[in-house]
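Z., the sequence and structure:
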Amino acid sequence: MFEAVELGRKLDKKDYKKQAAYYRDKLLFAQFALVNAGVPVYILLEGVDNTCKGEVVNLLNQWLDTRGLEVTGFGPKTDEEAERPRFWRYWRTFPARGRVGLFYGSWYTGELIKRSLEKQSKVDFDSHMLRINRLESMLAQDGALILKFWLHTSKAYQKRKFKELKKDKHGRWQVSELDEALHERYSDYIKAAERAVRLTDQPETPWIVVESEDDYFRNIMVAKTILQALEKRLAEEKEEVATVKAASSKKPPGDFPTETVLNQIDLSADLSREEYEERLALAQTRLNSLSWRAYHQGVSTVLLFEGWDAAGKGGAIRRIMEAVDARIARVISIAAPTDEEKAHHYLWRFWRHVPRAGRATLYDRSWYGRVLVERVEGFASVDEWRRAYSEINDFEEQLCDHGNVLLKFWLHIDQEEQLRRFEERKATPRKRYKITDEDWRNREKWPAYEQAAHEMIMRTSTDYAPWTLVPANSKRHARVTVLETLCDRLEKALQEKRG
């Protein structure tokens, strides 16, 4: 595949200077237009020759406005990165809307190296390429422009380049032991790269193979390709017709099924105060021990809480935090996204808080907002919330594949109990801050939210991340159920870890 571009194409210096001046100006204008269009741009640079990638990074760093450019290079994983799912370190570097992310190496690099050095099976390699496909498609559907460059050089060229660099006392550091090892396995590296290109070359996330042995030709080809892609996207943004987002709440009442999975929950369960205090104390003592065992064994925990307003999510979270040392657990309360969060894919703000090995993160509301409040209130388009089911399932699978204990709680109450709690909050000064006008508005849309929750549970309750539906008309019963469920799952995970 790559040999087809080994045509020996070159540009002379005079022609290069003339074209460089043109493309530099045009790229700057296009970059400024990106800000208003709100399009995030991902430029990935891959290839066998690291010096070649470095030269292109330096070029674009000179030609583009650095105020809107973020350059990221990935080396060996740090301890912090190794303790989280593989894509965590990439999500942290994704550019915001209107900015350009320039990646020296990417989520492909490590897999190519492992495969070419025979440290990874073909099955595992293909599996990772499939996951990359899902990631890139998800970003592209969210509006990102992704350009993936393979800067191709022959083995003979690389050999000459290494020889030149080793003679230069200021340049020999650029040739590492890994570079030389990959050079010896050049054909294996190319074979792995060609397979990666075949598996991940999609219309919305194409690969561009650039003959790169002549610096002038390579630079202009990269600049020309980027400019054409930017101008095409900007033209599409201008032509796009605004559409009205259809919220589920706009559907006629007859569209809602009379029976949902939530209707099947028995809300009569209750505990006496004596039984509650006894079981709560026992569960908290047990959780304290298990959380420290998890910390020392490197088992991470992710908990998320969804449910009706006033269902008792905060109370359940507080009983957990009473039992877990605050140094190894934290609560993330999810509200309306900030401007910074709106400038990224909606999962970005959740990836940031994925815990390190042995620690726990509790999400008070979560990524399911995309298929609940954003769906019902029309903040997400129909296409956006519909594709979110698979995006969420993939995200959670990555968490579980990495060894995280993931528990998802839906706390369920009926409308009468919610009204009683609303009135209680309204009448109690220290609780009054908990009740807002938005809570009352949401209550009026109960059927729409119930249907959204039903579909959410049906589509995202997987074997690796099932939903736990908690009857919560009794706060005492709900809190104990959450704690005991957490303890059981954590104990099972620790037993499996021990082997």
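Residues 241-256 have pLDDT under 50 and may be disordered. DSSP finds 20 helices and ten strands in the chain.

Let me know what you think.
H.
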